[in-house]
Amino acid sequence: MSKNHRIADRIIASIAPSIFGHDYIKRALALALFGGQAKNPGDKHKVRGDINVLVCGDPGTAKSQFLKFVEKIAPRAVFTTGQGASAVGLTAYVRRNPTTREWTLEAGALVLADQGVCLIDEFDKMNDQDRTSIHEAMEQQSISVSKAGIVTSLQARCSVIAAANPIGGRYDPSMTFAQNVNLSDPILSRFDILCVVRDEVDPIQDQHLAKFVVGSHIRHHPAKRETDDFEETVNELQIPQDMLKKYLVYARQNIHPKLQIWTKIK
Predict the structure, then answer these.
(1) CATH tag, 6-254
(2) How far apart are CA 42 and CA 24, in angstroms?
(3) 92 exposure class (CB count in 10 Å sphere: 0-12, 13-18, 19+)
């Protein structure tokens, strides 16, 4: 597969194939799924290799569907929503064992997603205190705990893919990204890729979207007929989900990308 010169296009076509367009978001999700290379130059400080992605845009633009697809295809994924998530639910908390009466440490979503992906929908619905609690996990990829006599550090080496709605419900292109979302600068700086998805009025694009949706319903109908040449071309590009999942596992374990000297010029 890797020798195919169109492998990048095939991977993008295989990310959420039921969603029309948004190739740049699919590319960002693919980068987060494959990840980068963690570094520790001179044993002085760790540089994370996991890629964090934030998708912000208008309602009804399939943001949640993107996250649900990643949950299905990622080798390890934990899905949660900002509205129902708390700081302890995302990081870690202590509880008393009813039998032994001893305090035990319970892992939150970010710890459970170690070496995988943590998906947070409705990220803007979290309160500021809960969002502040994940700063350490997103950058240092660890969670420090000091509760009930338990002092330790838990690994949270995962990518964070979050979806958020803009202030007022609609994205305003006349303002900056930071002005459109109800998020602080420290949390925004921890996202490597910021994606904007807008529901713009475009008759031609809407016509293509309608054709895609109708074609999708026809293809998945029990009494479907033979697909046309266009559909066959699309299906040829797509990689079966089981194969894509295995490819992700292999790439994360065996491929270690590195920057070339010529990238300094760019």
Answers:
(1) 3.40.50.300
(2) 35
(3) buried
CA-to-CA separations, 231 to 164, 212, 219, 227, 237, in angstroms, rounded: 32, 10, 9, 6, 10
Name, in order, each residue with C-beta under 8 angstroms of 164's C-beta and a sequence gap of 6 or more.
Answer: 54, 55, 56, 82, 122, 123, 124, 181, 183
Q: pLDDT tens digit string along 145-202?
A: 887 778 888 888 899 999 999 988 888 888 899 989 988 888 999 999 999 988 765 5
- How many angstroms separate the CA atoms of 210 and 203, rounded? 10
Rounded (10°) CA dihedral 16, 21, 22, 26? 30
Q: Which residues contact 167 (CB under 8 A, 6 or more apart)?
A: 179, 180, 181, 182
Domain ranges within the chain, ordered by starting residue: 6-254
Tokens representing 197?
């998805």
CA torsion, points 210, 216, 217, 223, in degrees to nearest 10?
140
